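Okay, can you check this protein?
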Amino acid sequence: MEHIAALLFVVGCSSSMTDCRELQVPVSVFETEQACTAERPFALGDLQGQAPHIIGRCLAVDPALEDDYDEVVWNVRPDGTLVASLEVSGMVVASNGERPEKDYLSQQ
């Protein structure tokens, strides 16, 4: 099993840099941070035209948490700097496929 060392995260922003959204890239995970950094300019070039401003960062992936990351927390500062990090939210979702019928009359 190969490990992921970096994730390429890209956002596209309006001309005023006030309205930004995540953009999808064809390849977003890399075995080394250097590979991500080398691919970044090409990925950004491929996305030209999808937004007035396109910004991307390579985010380091901790191998010990690789399977636990479940969200990217990000913000674009007024100067156009993309601040982003991979996070483990700690949210646990449990589900039980078997749902007994409730007797609403006997519930207090």
